[in-house]
Each structure stands twice: as C-alpha cells, then as structure tokens.
Write a structure and sequence with these properties.
By secondary structure, this protein is an alpha/beta fold. It has two domains: 147 residues, 3-Layer(aba) Sandwich (Rossmann fold), CATH 3.40.50; 220 residues, NAD(P)-binding Rossmann-like Domain (Rossmann fold, 3-Layer(aba) Sandwich), CATH 3.40.50. It contains 16 helices and twelve strands. The strands form two sheets. The protein has a seven-stranded mixed sheet with strand order 9-8-7-6-10-11-12, sandwiched between helices. Strands 1-2-4-3-5 form a five-stranded mixed sheet. The chain is globular and about 75 Å long. The structure holds glutamic acid.
Length: 473
C-alpha cells in the first residue's frame, strides 16, 4: 500500500476523479452518484483445506448500474481488501464508458495466495465463491459478468461457468455469465492476448502524432522504441511479444517477482518466458544483466515504461527517478495521484489505465455478444466474402490479361475468421477512444493531462445515460 495518500489506492482513484469532476461542468449530485460504489458484497465462507477449515474473505463490488450487466474481473491475491476492490470496480465503470462497452463497472476479489494452493483447493474456493454470488443474485449474463484478473485465468472462468450451469442449467444465455473462458468452452479467440494487444494498439496510436512526439523529443512510430516492462504475467507478456513482433520495438528491461534484468540490445520475450519456465526465474537470462532490485525496472533509461503488475508502484519516493518519456499503465492504478503530479511536471506522457488496459474488457464484450448470439463471429459471412473477392480478382485478371500470384491472391481473397474480426474490432476501439480523449485534451480548456481527459470522456457518456433516464436535469 502506498505511503503517498492516507487512503491508498481508492483515495488515489477518487482524487483523480475529483480533479476531473472540477473541470466537468456536471451537477454535483450527478457526480456524487457516479463516484460512489452502488453495491458492496463482502462475504466469508469456510473451505476445508487438508484437515482444517479455513475462513475465506472475499468481495464483489458493483460500482455503477447505469448500464447492465456490470462487468469486471476477479482477483486472487493475499493483498485483496475492500478498498482495493472498490477502487478497481470504479475504474471498470470509467474504462467501459471510455471504450463504449455498454456495461457498468464491477470487480471481485478473493483474499488468497494462489501460488500456495493446490489446483483442487483453488477449484473448491472458486466454486464456493460462485455459489455465494448466485445466492445473492450477483452473477448472471444480464446482472454481473466476471472475468479474469490478477491471479485468475480461463481455468477459473470455466469453473465459474460450470458452477453457474449446475444451478441455472436451463438458462438459454447462461454461457454469458462469465467471460475469459477457454475457447472450447464458449470463449472467444484472442481474449487471452486482448489486454496486451490493446496496450500495443493504444501505444501505436499515441506515438503516431508528430507534434505530441516532438514535444517529448521522440520520433513517431513504435519501430525501434525502447521499452521496460514491469511484470511478465498475461498482460506484460503479450504486450511485450506484440510490441516486439508487430511493432519492431526493443524490450530493454523486464521485472518479475524474483528480480529484474536489462539488455540494451533487447530481450526476446518468448525466449525469456521459456527460460523462466525452465529455471523458475527470469534472472541469468543469456545476454542480459541481472539487476539487484526488481523495482529498478521503473528507473531504466527507455522511451516507454509499461507497469503491468499491481497498483501503487510509482510513488512520491521513486517518481522522480523515472526516465521514460511515456508511461503506459497496463496495470490498474500503478501510479499514485501524488506521483502523477511529479511525472506530469517532468513532462512525462501518461497513458491512463482506464484507457490503455481496456482491451481485455473490450474483447470480453465481444465474447459476451458471441454467447448471446450463440454463434461464432464470421460464420455467416466468411465464405460469401471470400467468393465475392475471388470473383473480383478473376474479373481483374480477365480485364487486364494478367495473372495474380498465389500468395497475393490468398491475401486479397481471404474472408475474416473470428480472430481477424476480434483484432480488427479491438484496434478500431482503441484508435477511436484515443482520438476522443486526445480531442478533449486539445480542445477543452483547463484539461492538461490524458487521465483527466479520459475521465471527462467517461463522465460525459455516463452522465448522458443518467440524463436520458430523466434522473438528473
Ligand atoms: N480484469 C480485466 C480488467 O481489469 C478485464 C475485465 C473484464 O474483461 O471484464 O479490465
């Protein structure tokens, strides 16, 4: 927990909210309604572990019901507490609004250390937690839809769906009660990489503006940009791989639980992942230097810093040591509100969490739509499009008297598969949202940073919903 502010993470999120609210021109009552968490469900349940019973502390917070269902991941961590889950649920509301995903925000948390548990124990806890949610009407495709977060993944989502089905087997849309499921169990292609891919699309768009980059002393484009990543979990790993393989960027430093490494010439993320699997550590990776403290990753010389681990990592005590020109918050809340002020004074561009890491919930939305439609994306139109393109290519060949090569023909006539549509939908979402935020930053007086602009984008949309309901003037 940060020493920066007295309430920690939740206070930091609320402080950022207040900063934006002050320049929003919205009625005070409406702002208060948006800011507060609507429902907080705190639960305790016993689980037999070995010969003992352990009492598990867990939460589900629904921050805003202005759109339903509510949506957000479930976190398994020993550090889970009510304030943290409330802060994360609040961020989900703003995140969904920014990327036009029609959900309210929610988040779950179970206070356990998954590393220290066996798979059957984790399964037992997940199923019991789901049963508690069902009992209180806190889960359902039209009510509240969980997803993976720190410490959980597709395996846990499959257990949640199975538990839900055993209570509500006859519900036609039951598969939409949770997202991030394995692909063969009503999941969607591209959900696992989605947050990391979204971070890449966000960065690619942000570094494409000449004047913005010139102000930072950088060239446009991802090619050759040096990057440091804190955390090699699902988000950090996919961000690194995609920036490297599709963007041509150079990952100079990576940090994990056991330490950090540095190589000016670049670290191959896939090879590093394999090395960690084999040796149990990222340290001693061929060609890279070990760094004594894992937090040093935040201070290395690079163009882009990507904190992809937990909240409150950049604080008043280390913010001034950041050398990156751009910080992309792949994690939720990695910069405290106080540290942000320091970074902004230093001229650092901060791409805020509620925009940058919204790729996960965006593809969750696609998965939910797939579940409600009971059909994979692309099934109806792929062949039709393919045949149309083939006819067009044939026509061009006949008219010109020339033949198009096989490789080119395949590229030109391909109909979209589910993964192509998911990636295209995600890219479109990240680009459109960035342009909205950037326009607010450039056009609206008194708004000086991207986080405040992102908040304003969210507040404008959420308040329109409330006003349409006639609850507020
Ligand atoms: N846990 C992810 C987040 O913080 C994904 C949430 C979701 O897909 O619902 O955005």
């Amino acid at each position: 927990m940060s020493k920066d502010n007295h309430g920690g993470f939740l206070a930091s999120v609320n402080r950022n909210f207040d900063k934006a609210a002050a320049v929003s021109n919205l009625p005070e009552g409406l702002l208060a309604q948006i800011k507060e968490c609507n429902s907080v469900y705190q639960m305790r349940f016993p689980v037999k572990i070995g010969n003992d019973y352990k009492v598990i502390e867990a939460y589900r917070v629904q921050h805003s019901h202005h759109r339903l269902p509510t949506k957000g991941g479930i976190r398994y961590s020993q550090k889970v507490n009510q304030d943290e889950v409330m802060a994360l649920a609040s961020l989900m509301t703003y995140k969904c609004a920014i990327v036009d995903v029609p959900f309210g925000g929610a988040k779950g948390g179970v206070k356990i250390s998954p590393r220290e548990m066996t798979v059957p124990q984790l399964q037992k806890i997940t199923r019991r937690y789901t049963a508690e949610l069902i009992r209180k009407n806190f889960i359902g495709p039209g009510i509240d839809v969980p997803a993976p977060d720190y410490g959980t993944g597709s395996r846990e989502m499959a257990w949640i769906l199975d538990t839900y089905l055993s209570f509500k087997g006859g519900e036609i849309d039951a598969a939409g009660c949770v997202t991030g499921k394995p692909v063969h169990q009503n999941g969607i292609q591209g959900r696992t990489e989605a947050t990391g891919r979204g971070v890449y699309y966000a960065l690619k768009e942000a570094v494409s503006y000449k004047d913005d980059m010139a102000a930072l002393g950088l060239e446009t484009g991802m090619e050759g940009k040096t990057i440091a990543i804190q955390g090699l979990g699902n988000v950090g790993y996919h961000t690194g791989v995609i920036c490297q393989e599709e963007g041509g960027s150079i990952i100079v430093s990576v940090a994990e639980y056991e330490g950090a490494i540095y190589n000016k010439k670049g670290i191959d993320i896939k090879a590093l992942f394999k090395h960690r699997k084999e040796t149990g550590s990222i340290l001693d990776f061929p060609g890279a230097k070990n760094m004594k403290q894992r937090k040093r990753v935040l201070e290395v010389d690079c163009d882009i810093l990507i904190p992809a681990a937990l909240e409150s990592q950049i604080r008043v005590d280390n913010a001034h040591k950041v050398k990156a020109k751009i910080v992309a918050e792949a994690a939720n809340g990695p910069i405290t509100a106080e540290a942000e002020e320091i970074l902004l004074k230093m001229g650092v561009m901060i791409l805020p969490d509620m925009y940058v890491n919204a790729g996960g919930v965006t593809v969750s939305y696609f998965e939910w739509l797939k579940n409600l439609s009971h059909m994979r994306f692309g099934r109806m139109e792929k062949r039709f499009n393919q045949n149309t393109y083939l006819n067009l290519v044939g026509l061009v060949e006949r008219l010109t008297g020339k033949t198009i090569g096989v490789k080119e023909r395949n590229l030109l006539t391909k109909g979209a598969d589910e993964i192509d549509l998911v990636r295209s939908g995600l890219e479109e979402t990240m680009i459109t949202s960035y342009r909205q935020i950037r326009t607010i930053l450039k056009k609206r007086k008194k708004i000086e940073d991207l986080r405040t602009a992102a908040f304003i984008s969210a507040l404008d949309k959420i308040s329109s919903d409330y006003m349409a309901l006639g609850i507020f003037p």
